[in-house]
Design goal:
Layout (H helix, E strand, L loop, with lengths): L3 H10 L3 E5 L5 E4 L1 H7 L3 H4 L4 H4 L7 H12 L3 E2 L24 E10 L2 E10 L1 H20 L11 H18 L3 E8 L2 H8 L1 H17 L7 E6 L2 E7 L3 H17 L15 E7 L8 H17 L5 E3 L1 H6 L1
Parallel strand pairs: 9-10
Antiparallel strand pairs: 1-2, 1-5, 3-4, 4-5, 6-8, 6-9, 7-8
Helix pairs in contact: 8-9
The structure holds guanosine-5'-triphosphate (GTP).
Length: about 325
């Protein structure tokens, strides 16, 4: 039989909050940990009904859990996501400021003929803080990443950096540089017919085939966004870029991926716009992308599944 004094000492030393309520939800025990983190001594709170003393707990999951314990004799571990700071608890001696993050469980028990419930509160601030930090770091890493998560080819960020770098080289050395912008035809219809998941699988197949068509180490195949892809082709003039684009278009068509009935072809196809660096007209990323985009739009307008070269370039050629 444990000595009452010893038992009291252990309760005082416990590194978690222990609150016992009787069947009428009156606080019969409020341990030292609760006192030092709330600023409310046991003598102040014991004898009070918990939800009268702390009205903000009314309507919360804790009230429900206490009810479940006292009425249905069932324990509850409060879900972390619902309310991480139910009690106004603070790191010892710092009442005010940010509340401690808490993990709370409620357990019923019977002593003699009386039903009670034990509320255990532990401080999970460190774990939650670490979780937040890790999530923040993961997000930062993703933002810094140069790889598209779905297709595994370069992402838009990588593409922007590569285009900038190659444009500076073209200016410096007078080298040629071309850009392809491509878009899967009637992809909305594909998604609508086969579902988004199969749409994602289709994007991955197309990306793999497209990236496989670019052979030179300096060429860059990227997912530009959604169902749009792009390629940076250094040391490549308009005529050669058009040839590349045509080969890519044919390769995608040859994959023979069944398209939705509403699409122009019964297999998945791509429209491609081509624009090339021109120090007098298309000398920066914005104008080069604008020209490629207009060419892509023209390809869509021409019936899709085709390649269109930026018109001024065409005229100059
Ligand atoms: N499955 C999937 N679909 C995407 C993704 N990104 C964009 N899309 C879909 O791609 C479709 C693009 O549709 P639109 O811009 O209307 O063009 P379209 O149907 O391809 O028609 P055209 O380009 O004119 O031939 C939209 O339905 C988008 O929801 C993605 O990551 N996965």
């Amino acid at each position: 039989m444990i000595h009452p004094k010893l038992f009291e000492r252990v309760l005082g030393l416990a590194n978690l909050g222990l609150v016992v309520l009787d069947a009428s939800q009156t606080i019969v025990l409020w341990n030292q940990w609760m006192a030092s983190h709330s600023g409310w001594s046991a003598s102040r709170v014991q004898g009070n009904e918990l939800f009268d003393l702390i009205p903000e707990l009314r309507g919360q999951r804790l009230e429900q859990a206490v009810h479940t314990a006292l009425v249905n004799n069932l324990p509850t571990q409060l879900p972390q996501a619902s309310n991480r700071t139910p009690f106004a608890l603070y790191p010892a001696g710092t009442w005010g400021g940010e509340r401690m993050e808490q993990s709370v469980s409620v357990t019923p028990f019977t002593e003699g003929k009386e039903r009670y419930c034990l509320i255990e509160v532990s401080d999970v601030s460190t774990t939650v803080g670490r979780e937040r930090q890790l999530r923040g770091q993961a997000e930062a890493l993703r933002a810094q990443s140069y790889v598209d998560g779905l297709t595994g080819i370069a992402n838009r960020r990588h593409f922007d950096v590569a285009l900038d770098r190659e444009l500076r080289r073209a200016h410096r050395n007078g080298n040629e540089l071309s850009l392809l912008l491509m878009d899967i035809d009637s992809f909305k219809a594909y998604n609508d017919h086969f579902g988004h998941q199969q749409g994602d699988a289709c994007l991955s197949l197309v990306a793999e085939a497209f990236a496989g068509m670019l052979q030179r180490p300096a060429d860059l195949a990227a997912r530009y966004g959604g169902e749009e892809f792009a390629a940076v082709l250094p040391d490549t003039g308009p005529a050669q870029a058009q040839q590349h684009a045509e080969a890519i278009r044919a390769r995608i068509a040859a994959l023979g991926i069944t398209h939705a009935p509403a699409a122009v072809r019964n297999h998945v196809t791509m429209s491609i716009g081509v624009a090339s660096f021109d120090k007098n007209r298309l000398a920066d990323a914005e104008s080069l992308l604008g020209a490629a985009d207009r060419a892509l739009y023209a390809a869509k307008h021409a019936g899709r599944d085709c390649v269109v070269v930026d018109s001024a370039q065409d005229a100059a050629a």
